[in-house]
Amino acid sequence: MTQVKTAKFTVIKQHICQKIESGEWQQHAKVPSENELAEQFSVSRMTARRALQELTEQGLLIRSQGSGTFVATFKSQSSLLEIRNIADEIQERGHQHHAKQLTLKAVAVNEEITILLNLKSSETVYYSEVLHFENDQPIQLEQRYVNSVLVKNYLTQDFTKITPHEYLSSEAPLTEATHEIEAVLADKNICQLLNIETSSPCLQVKRRTWSSKGVVSLAILTSPGNKYRLGSHLIF
Amino acid sequence: MTQVKTAKFTVIKQHICQKIESGEWQQHAKVPSENELAEQFSVSRMTARRALQELTEQGLLIRSQGSGTFVATFKSQSSLLEIRNIADEIQERGHQHHAKQLTLKAVAVNEEITILLNLKSSETVYYSEVLHFENDQPIQLEQRYVNSVLVKNYLTQDFTKITPHEYLSSEAPLTEATHEIEAVLADKNICQLLNIETSSPCLQVKRRTWSSKGVVSLAILTSPGNKYRLGSHLIF
DNA sequence: CAAGCAAGCTTGTATATACAACTATTGACA
DNA sequence: TGTCAATAGTTGTATATACAAGCTTGCTTG
């Protein structure tokens, strides 16, 4: 007897999932109430509740106090793509990552960047350029504008040892991020750095990160389209 | 007195979040145990537990049976990008979406597609080509290979009325998806359809969707880089 | 001294109970 | 017939309790 004991709430979850996947319970169908499930599976209401709760968090069910629990609309289920750190990503592939710091200075920036960083006037902003390598091949150029008010010691860091993202995470715990992903043609200088033709398409991710005190930084990550892809495996 | 009553577990969550955001509790720092929190806030252990549990689900904490609860590593917190239906996306922008069905037939496919769809031999596969328009401008070409075993009536659908994704969701509830995002140069035919130069970079999303019975379909979504971007606003 | 065991802490699962908050239905009354 | 109030059913919050399961520590014992 080597069978693994399955938790009761898991059994109930599986039962409900099966009903939905088989199509027996259509969209918006009413799901048995906590009390009904409790009786049906001979468990307490709190156990049945947990099953419903977790499936609700996963987006399979919708609950409404007073009226009941229902199967969620499928089409509203959007899938999620995980955006990871380039360094982590490379290491997970079993490859070697190293970074080269090209620029690190305070700059005066144009209006667009000022707005994106949510600054008042044309305050100075810290700017860094780091080129990331995967097995000695250039794989991503990271251009980063940093809020000099929120991050004090940015200019004294060595970004060959710690990535800017890691440093910022430790300085000002990040709570939110917005991303924009585009396909672009990079300009001549960037193409030279990435060792590609000027006609090669590049994947460009613009990431703005926030801490509780405001916008921390704007990162522009440019990668050659023929060498790099964003990938993920995620649940609905 | 119009103050809103805050649930006790919410108060505890806020307290813990504040400690982490302020930096008082660093990465890997030990968080008070369920019993300690329960005593500190004069609540039952189950209530304190709920606070820890929910923060764990959000990725702020890590719990380990026997040893305790700890602040999660910030760098391992990856952010999530929501990938939505093109039709929903356009509608949310307040623009008008319509689709033109270019192709819909059974085809014999090459080995690559066979493998991606997890089929045995070179079975026939359904293939559709749908061009999506935003305000009468072509914005995305959707090429889709569909598992003919799992989806029977694919060839009789009208994809100007319902998108393939919506139809597949209703036929075989999707449970998982994998995505790959690349920047590419599209071939001449595709550029013509999208009304762009052949040198224009395109954003290409390859999406494989799964039901409980296997791979349902492989979609190749190609959009002009100068007109379309993937965007999102999401929590860590 | 080293190995191993036991105690005590932690989180995980489960139950029974109570009350609050919200919704939909039912029924009484005007 | 229309309106309002009571009621029953639902989910939400909270408590007290019990035992299971996993980790750490320290002590016992060989």
Query: Overall 3D geometry of chain A?
Result: elongated
CATH superfamily of the largest domain in chain A: Chorismate lyase-like
Task: Give the largest interface pair and sizes.
Answer: A-B, 52 and 54 residues
Helix count of chain A, per DSSP?
A: 7
The percentage helix of chain A is 25-40%
CATH A-level architecture of the largest domain in chain A? 3-Layer(aba) Sandwich
Main structural class of chain A: alpha+beta
Q: Which percent band covers the strand fraction of chain A?
A: 35-45%
Number of strands of chain A: 11
- Total domain count of chain A: 2
Mean pLDDT of chain A: 87
The CATH class of the largest domain in chain A is Alpha Beta
CATH fold call of the largest domain in chain A: Chorismate lyase
Rg of chain A (C-alpha, Å): 24 Å
- Weakly predicted, low-confidence segments of chain A: none
The major beta sheet of chain A can be summarized as: 6 strands, antiparallel
| N- to C-terminal distance of chain A | 35 Å
Major beta sheet, strand line-up of chain A: 5-6-7-10-9-8
